[in-house]
Design a protein that fits this description.
The chain is mainly alpha-helical. It contains seven helices and three strands; from the N terminus they run ααβαβαβααα. A three-stranded parallel β-sheet has the order 1-2-3. Helix 3 links the parallel strand 1 (39-40) and strand 2.
Length: 134
């Protein structure tokens, strides 16, 4: 799969931007996810837990608006964080948004900052560090 993905990426002019990691322990999974620049969710069956983990790790996401429950998970997560504008209403808008974010580091960084701000706002400030680490 890795070889095929690298070949497809190279065929489309995307080189040096894909990263692959070996299977990780659960405790290392979310921190390793934070190394990604952008999560591009698939069309028919959204990421669900993986998507939530990616967002919690501070990785912005782009999703395509779906009709069925399985294809609406990412859109729900993003809307709840105030980032519903990263849920594209059409395949063309989805592709355009991904290409725009991938080719404009400043825009991607701004999206990451908005995501991190939303995550901080979502955590009750009355919780102590020890409560959050449970």
């Amino acid at each position: 799969a890795e070889q095929s993905l690298r070949a497809q990426a190279a065929a489309h002019g995307v080189t040096g931007r894909l990263g692959f990691v070996p299977k990780l322990r659960e405790a290392d999974f979310i921190p390793a996810r934070s190394l990604a620049d952008l999560m591009v969710d698939n069309r028919w069956y959204n990421a669900h837990t993986t998507g939530a983990d990616s967002l919690w790790a501070g990785v912005p996401a782009v999703a395509l608006q779906g009709r069925g429950l399985a294809s609406r998970a990412s859109g729900s997560f993003l809307a709840a964080l105030g980032l519903g504008y990263t849920v594209a209403p059409s395949w063309k808008a989805y592709e355009d948004l991904i290409c725009s974010l991938a080719s404009t580091p400043e825009r991607l960084q701004l999206l990451r900052r908005r995501l991190l701000d939303a995550l901080l706002a979502a955590v009750p400030h009355s919780l102590t560090d020890s409560q959050l680490s449970r």
